[in-house]
Amino acid sequence: MRGLERLTGAVSGAAGYIGWFLILYCMAFGVSDVFMRYVLNAPSQWIGTSLQAAMVLLACAGGIYSLQHESFVKLDLFYANASSRNKAILDVLTMPFAVLFLGALIVKGYEAASLSLMLNQQTPTAIPIPIYPIKFAIPLSGCLVLLIVLKHFIRDLKIIFGRD
After folding, report:
1. Helix/strand/coil (H/E/C) assignment for every residue in 30-46
2. Is the pLDDT of residue 73 over 80?
3. Do 62 and 73 contact (CB within 8 A), yes or no?
């Protein structure tokens, strides 16, 4: 369990730094794209596409970081005032839904990324940017989130059975 905790902590820390960098990238290039388009009347041919890719990567990195630090929104109507054991029970009951979603995300994301690689998909812009690396980030982040879900599941089972 300690190894899993260290691994997910390291991955989530790296995802946090990647997300931080991507936010700065999106802010800087988003503002410069608006400036170039509306002030200079010279729109960029690649910034919009790279911002879309950065937003996908930001969602992937943000999901990893948020789940590790338990920052996702929960239905506080039932959850907020519950004891830690009842919270663990609720988490265990909802875990199959998370695994089902992540399984579909991983399988279908991998299929889409593999097809994109096979077709050598690129953006239809003046500067062609390969799309498949971005598409492979989706199932990869799904696997990493699944690791964190597994870690939380083990922790919740320990709480339920009084071993924590």
Report:
1. HHHHHHHHHHCCCCCCC
2. no
3. no
